[in-house]
Amino acid sequence: KMNKKAGIEVDTITTHALVFFKRRQTIEEILKKAIHLRNVDVYFQPIYCVKTGEFRSLEALARLHSAELGFISPGEFIPIAEEKGLIQELGEVLLEVVCQAKKRLRIEGISIDQINVNISPIQIFHDRLMERVLDVSTREQVDCGFLHFELTESVVLDNMDKMKVAMEEFEALGIGFSLDDYGTGYTNISNVIQFPFSCIKLDKTLLYEAERNEDNFIVIQALAQSFRQIGKHVVVEGVETQEQLELAYRMGSNFVQGYYFARPMPLRELVRFYKDNRVRTF
Ligand code: C2E
Ligand code: MG
Ligand code: MG
Ligand code: MG
């Protein structure tokens, strides 16, 4: 009886493992095809500037759809792209789409100062990234200075010296940096100070902590204000409600990003968002 039971469990585990590997394999194939056809979807989420009330920066977020699996979240396909050595090419297609979007927006009469692109660890140290940025921006006739890279702390921590050099090279092209997901996992304050980040993005979990009780709020507010005092911009991410927006204001953030203002959306919808927002105030 025991054996039979154990047998069933092993079978179940094997089945789950197979389903898991099959799914990963399918996603890898979908990624390869999307890269090959250069039709990776990119959504854009407007970022609200507290001082001006305008949305002059955007975050570009990769999207993957397939007939077979439907919507696949970047939380799932980005790690696969990284492991399978596809992130470099995926990033290149993304840069291309972002530059094309910038051009399109200009044609529509919509001025955007900055488009943030998430950069994986492998990408930033790849010699080709700089080359591709220059190629693509020249080809699409946009000045690459509108590009802005988002890096997470773990990336920075892993290769301190190399990272500083790489960041300075991009800065010389007018490409700035944000520290993404600040407050998740291990946090090292010197990363904020010694690397040329112009902006710190407080992860949405910090906002939700601040919302939970007043003590949390006071500590996170002090953190945000310290960043401001050393000359960093602060973005509060994940703002979905009026109450959270007010918390973000009270923290002293310069920028707010979240579903309250806008969800990430395809370019066509983004154009409409800007045309409609000329008369909206928050
Ligand atoms: P991230 O860079 O921190 O991006 C912010 C995530 O928060 C996005 O999820 C966005 O859709 C979501 N978000 C925005 N506003 C709200 C809100 O009000 N409430 C909630 N609950 N969520 C909100 P998404 O698009 O699923 O991306 C997840 C992560 O995948 C990103 O986190 C980023 O680390 C990674 N990622 C996305 N696109 C790319 C890419 O092109 N390249 C690389 N390397 N990573 C990417
Ligand atoms: Mg990001
Ligand atoms: Mg983030
Ligand atoms: Mg994230």
Structural commentary:
With 282 residues, this protein is α/β, with parallel strands linked by helices. Helices cover 54% and strands 18% of the residues. It is built from 12 helices and 9 strands. It has helices spanning 2-36, 74-83, 87-107, 121-124, 127-139, 153-158, 160-171, 189-194, 204-212, 214-229, 242-251, 267-277; strands spanning 41-49, 57-66, 70-72, 114-118, 147-152, 176-182, 199-202, 233-237, 255-257. The protein has an 8-stranded mixed barrel with strand order 1-2-4-5-6-7-8-9, surrounded by 5 helices. Helix 3 runs parallel beside helix 5 and helix 9 packs across helix 10. 33% of the residues are buried. The mean pLDDT is 91. The structure holds ligand C2E and magnesium ion (MG) (3 copies). One magnesium ion binds next to loops.
Count helical runs: 12
Kindly estimate the percentage of residues that lie in beta strands according to DSSP.
15-25%
Adjacency order of strands in the biggest sheet: 1-2-4-5-6-7-8-9
| Alpha-beta classification | alpha/beta
Order of helices and strands: HEEEHHEHHEHHEHEHHEHEH
Overall number of strands: 9
Backbone shape = globular
Bound molecules: ligand C2E, magnesium ion
- CA radius of gyration is 21 Å
Largest sheet: 8 strands, mixed, barrel
Euclidean distance between termini CA atoms: 66 Å
